[in-house]
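This section describes the prediction task in plain terms. A model, or a person checking by hand, is given the sequence of a single protein chain and must write out its three-dimensional structure as a string of tokens. No templates, partner chains or ligands are provided. The sample shown here is typical of the held-out split.
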Amino acid sequence: MTGFGRATTSGDNYAISVDLKTVNNRFLDVNMRLPSELQALESTIKKIIGSRLARGRVEANLQYDRSDAITLELNRPLITGFLAAMKDMRDEFSLSGEPDINVIARLPNVVATKKEEPSSEFLSAIEKTFNAALDDLEQMRAKEGEMLAAELAARLNEIESRIPQIESESASVADEHSKRLTKRINDMLAKTDSQIELDQARLAQEVAYLVDRADISEEITRLRSHIEHFRGIMKDETDVGKRLDFLTQELNREANTIASKTNNMTIKENALAIKSEIEKIREQVQNVE
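The expected answer:
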């Protein structure tokens, strides 16, 4: 599910800003980059995100400013090497004079900012800011979820509205098979000028066999059951997406079976319309956690 969340936190000597963006993904994929001094927080932040989100690709952007007192430190190996080289040059070429501190100070990287380890207060503030950004993100995703739930409910209603038509037509399947089979046999007998009479008992057996093969009552029952189960899961708050994804596959399986078991055009047309709605549900379910 797509969404965006932002939060900021500030203290006496720091300011933190966190942006979170999520896009659809079947699994949880957290993508974040942290400066070297905050690498130790990576696993903690991923756990925080994982405890709140179950699916989606998450892009986490952390920005901060720290106004701690800056401490500079000397690059002692560089200075030692420079002074040793100056001494060798003086001795080798019989030169006079001493190294000037102004010359040494202008050497590249001779003075560097000392890296201070982040304080526990600062690290705690980062975790707090991520949680606040997740709160903001979830509010946005909740609004999108309400719209998504309404759309899924409408799709289910459309599927359910076509089931009575399928049931009504399926009741006449036996009569259709009897008429079709009788017509075929009569046509064949007419072509051969045969005087053989139809064995009505045998015909009834064949019709019963064909009707049994074309019976879709179990598929209709399961279709209704899956719809009710789907609605029940939509009311849950955790681990919804994967269960709805599985149920969508089951709905599609029943619609396929109904369409393949009969030659009745009304049933086929309604089964294909149901499959079309199921495909739209499948696309949307990928957005659900």
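For orientation: The two ends are 7 Å apart (CA to CA).
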